[in-house]
Amino acid sequence: xxxxxxxHSSKDKSYVSxxxxxxxxxxxxxxxxxxxxxxxxxxEIFREMDKTCIFVVFLSDASLSSEWVQTELSIAEERLHYDxxxxxxxxxxxxxPTINHKDTRIPAFLRQGIGSYNLRVITSxxxxxxxxxxxxxxxxxxxKLFISEEQTCFYGRxxxxxxxxxxxxxxxxxxxxxxxxxxxxGRKSFLLQCLRQSHIIEEYYTPPVIxxxxxxxxxxxxxxxxxxxxxxxxxxxxxxxxxxDSKISALEELLKEIRDYQEQVIIYDNGCxxxxxxxxxxxxxxxLKNIITSAVKDRKVTSDGxxxxxxxxxxxxxx
Length: 319
Known about the structure:
It is a single chain. By secondary structure, the chain is α/β, with parallel strands linked by helices. The chain has 14 helices and ten strands. The strands form three sheets. The chain has a four-stranded parallel β-sheet with strand order 2-1-3-4, with helices on both faces. A four-stranded parallel β-sheet has the order 5-10-7-6, sandwiched between helices. A two-stranded antiparallel sheet has the order 8-9.
């Protein structure tokens, strides 16, 4: 069995249940599916851990105060580091914005030393779901249990991909990548290869995809991004934003959220962002400019006084 164990406090069930619903009982261990009421005990935890390849722990104030979560995490650590059984990975996700990686209730092996984890707050269950799915895909590929044709087979465009990689490696600020041409010629695959060969995304990860037609507006883009886990706009709330400057600011915040989650979004654009002449709509340009301006303000300073920043591609557009 190659299941995902979802360790959480019952107080965080509304967050975790969406993720459990996506994977289903055949792919994850989730207490409401696997543990009978009143019968949750150590024997059951050991039994379900035997079926687990990835142990996901959702860190919150409630879970860090939960005896059961701490017990499950201790068992997982034992199996990961000492037991050498089926468990391949512990994957912690902070879901509570009041918690940070310095919280001493988080076990030291998760937050300290060379083997510590990159703990970040992910308040969107949709984003967390994608990251968990990527880890599961990595496990299956590493253990030769799954071979993705998309990830192993891509031919052509080597020169263009090499140019993109050289630009990125040279430190060029990249916020948006556009692949234009006729539909059905592999624009998405080309963009994914650019991102993967530049190590912007891992080989086993596929970004979320949205589509915008020629009649779509900035409000539609806010809604579409919210549907894949960035922001919480509905069409009603997006249209209530009073003016274009405020809407651009709202889009800027969603793009920053994508950046902070270390994610990217692929956009199938059919004339909303880029017209037939190659002109980019002004509100999208302005939002990207604002992101670059804010990134410059956040440049880090090295020990010898030099400043640097590492820009990533947040949007990849098939136009």
